[in-house]
Amino acid sequence: MFIALLVWRFRPLDYSDIVKTEEIKGSFSVRTYNFEDEFRMENINMDERNEILEILNTSSYRPFFRNLWPWKWTFRDQSYDGNTVIIGMVDNERREFYQIFLMNTGRINVYRSGEPERVYHIDNDEMKAKLIKYIRENGKKVE
Q: Which residue of 36, 128, 137, 141 is surrounded by the most CB atoms within 10 Å?
């Protein structure tokens, strides 16, 4: 049992293992903000969506042990770097939504309608910075 837990915890996952993005038939939007400004990309086309997914796939992800807890919990820590990325996906066919938050260094929070929050360690610390740069270059600044 202990070995199975260690394998579950330390086996790297791809982004497609934690969010089945290719199955989602609907809208896709992203935004990033910090203490000074906010940039958004809404109604993203397939090329932009693929570029964002490509950035997300530059990292592997490892689940937190707390994902095994049967009750809801909120993860709080002090590693907020001042930059937030929020990815929203709505599946019109299944009437589901996902929200993915990249707030704290080294962590991604995944919310799916009707399920508890899942939290994963990010193995590539540069992925978030690349994603922020992409959104700032291709998105619109919110006034």
A: 128
Confidence of residue 71 (pLDDT cuts 50, 70, 90): low
For the sheet containing 61-63, what is the strand order? Answer: 61-63, 118-122, 107-112, 96-104, 80-91, 26-33, 38-41, 140-141
pLDDT of 102 reads 85
- Judged on CB neighbours under 10 Å (0-12, 13-18, 19+), 74 is exposed
Between 133 and 27, the higher pLDDT residue: 133
pLDDT tens for each residue of 6-43: 777 778 888 878 777 666 676 778 888 777 788 888 88
Distance of CA 96 to the CA centre of its chain: 16
DSSP string, 69-114: -SS------S-EEEEEEEEEEEETTTTEEEEEEEEETTEEEEEETT
Name which of 85, 141, 137 is nearest 109 in CA terms: 85
- Domains of the chain: residue spans and CATH: 2-141 (3.30.1490)
